[in-house]
Design a protein that fits this description.
- Helices cover about 35% and strands about 20% of the residues.
- It is an alpha/beta fold.
- The strands form three sheets. It has a six-stranded mixed sheet with strand order 2-3-1-4-5-6, sandwiched between helices.
- The chain starts with a strand and ends with a strand.
- Bound molecules: guanosine-5'-diphosphate (2 copies).
- Pfam families: KH_dom-like, MMR_HSR1.
Length: about 475
């Protein structure tokens, strides 16, 4: 069972470009003939493991007559009625326009499932537009670049829970229709109000690590049944990319990279495969669990994937597995913590949890660490509090004055979450030394209690 997604928005924001990217063919060839109304186009879209129908409402860009607005409105309303989910696109470079507000209005009135996308999001020129998009009151915008293919992983993260919801609805709907038709009761209208399942959005977790770290064993233990094949011989084939499960009552979707590797005869090929699978899983996850083997922790491959998770902006939890066979637990833990700080300074404050996938010990702490990391990753700091904080930070350590000109930091706001991203308006942003940015980032992390999440800080010049 899949769903239908309509891409709506004013002309020229990039709807067709995204449509083409999702459908994967040059199906939506740009029409050279002016004045041709292409109306609604449909295609079969793929985004990672999601398959859905996408409707493009581009087709009015050449219409210049007075009725443009009216036609656009009707077309959009029709698309909204056809679709399960609307992707409302704005142009982040242009910012929010009155026409965008009209679209937002339609979508709010239709109370559609809306995913907001700020397109043309590549580069700093889009920063202000992305911030403005929050004001549309349609939730957090996804920063996209349809042209460059950036932000598709964030789109996936937002679509996945909605897709789950439609799957659940489909299951609930089918038998009910039959019953009602047979009985011919007079409550017919009730049939059209689809019961909204109470399933919360599953938290998306990837378990990554080198072959034999114990990823499959860990997931089996969580599932509480031998659903995955495990064994000392690496290279067991499984098809699923992700599994839905409840872990202590919390709905989760776990991306299992071990299961994705194929039987490979050559060891080198196997290593390569598992690395690229790991990369893919990281992109789709909210929280990445880096699973280490206590015997051989922090190997090159572990460091690479942990660093990648940080650069991709995911929340990270480090879990040290096979703790059951460790003899000098205290000493070992001290060494591990020391190595962690030294080898992964970019993950400062991220939790390090010792577990045994085999016996299940420590898994409750791992679950809690995952939820907390997710929470921190989603944290939003109010603008007023941020600016009060900034004043204190500036007093404590005034910014440098390269060539006698003091850099002035004027104003600060949190532009995004998942992970937290902040924008500081200042003079001469290009002259700001990295050390002062680090001072601010570390201060944010400590004062607003955001351990173990990547924090992005952007300096923007204010004229
Ligand atoms: P539509 O009218 O909403 O369907 O918009 P199109 O997909 O036809 O795109 C309008 C223009 O924006 C084209 O010139 C695209 O190449 C350009 N465009 C689309 N996406 C992006 C993007 O992510 N970044 C930039 N810089 N340009 C884009
Ligand atoms: P994967 O390649 O990361 O999926 O690793 P597997 O889950 O297949 O585990 C590799 C081997 O390590 C198997 O022989 C498991 O039985 C063993 N193993 C996994 N977790 C533990 C653990 O917590 N303790 C011990 N002693 N062995 C484990």
């Amino acid at each position: 069972m899949s769903f239908t997604l309509a891409i709506v928005g004013r002309p020229n924001v990039g709807k067709s470009t995204l449509f083409n990217r999702l459908v994967g063919k040059k199906l939506a060839l740009v029409d050279d003939q002016p004045g041709v109304t292409r109306d609604l186009r449909e295609g079969e879209a793929r985004l990672a493991d999601l398959r859905f129908t996408v409707i493009d409402t581009a087709g009015l860009e050449d219409a210049t007559d007075d009725s443009l607005q009216g036609r656009m409105r009707r077309l959009t309303e029709r698309a909204v009625e056809m679709a399960d989910i609307c992707l409302f696109m704005i142009d982040a470079r242009a910012g929010v326009t009155p026409l965008d507000e009209m679209f937002a209005d339609i979508l709010r009135k239709k109370s559609a499932n809306v995913v907001l996308a700020a397109n043309k999001g590549e580069g700093a020129a889009a920063d202000a537009g992305v911030i403005e998009a929050y004001n549309l009151g349609l939730g957090e915008p996804i920063r996209l670049s349809a042209e460059h293919g950036e932000g598709l992983n964030d789109l996936y993260v937002q679509l996945m829970p909605l897709a789950d919801q439609f799957e659940a609805q489909a299951v609930q709907d089918t038998p009910e229709t039959d019953v009602d038709l047979d009985e011919g009761d007079d409550d017919d209208e009730e049939n059209y109000t689809v019961p909204v399942p109470t399933t919360a959005k599953p938290l998306q977790v990837a378990v990554v690590g080198r072959p034999n770290a114990g990823k499959s064993t860990l997931i089996n233990q969580i599932l509480g049944e031998e659903r995955l094949l495990t064994g000392p011989e690496a290279g067991i084939t499984r098809d699923a990319i992700s599994l839905r499960m409840e872990w202590d009552g919390v709905p989760m979707r776990i991306f299992d990279t071990a299961g994705m590797r194929k039987k490979a005869k050559v060891q080198e090929k196997l290593e390569k495969l598992s690395v690229s699978d790991g990369l893919r899983a990281v992109k789709f996850a909210e929280v990445v669990v880096v699973l280490l083997d206590a015997d051989i922790p922090f190997e090159q491959q572990d460091l690479r994937i942990a660093d990648l998770a940080e650069r991709e902006g995911r929340a990270v939890v480090v879990a040290v597995n096979k703790w059951d066979i460790e003899e000098n637990k205290q000493e070992k833990l001290r060494d591990l913590k020391e190595a962690f700080t030294r080898l992964l300074p970019q993950l400062r404050g991220a939790p390090l949890i010792t577990v045994s996938a085999k016996t299940g010990r420590g898994l409750d702490r791992l679950q809690q660490a995952i939820m907390r990391a997710h929470d921190v990753w989603n944290r939003r700091v109010p603008t007023a509090a941020l600016n009060r904080w900034l004043v204190g930070m500036l007093e404590q350590h005034p910014p440098p004055a390269p060539q006698g000109k003091r850099i002035k930091l004027r104003y600060m706001t949190q532009a995004k979450t998942r992970p937290p991203g902040f924008v500081v308006m200042c003079s001469h942003p290009d002259k700001m030394p990295e050390s002062y940015k680090r001072y601010l980032v570390n201060g944010l992390r400590q004062d607003f209690d955001m351990p173990g999440t990547p924090i992005r800080l952007t300096l923007r010049s204010q004229n």
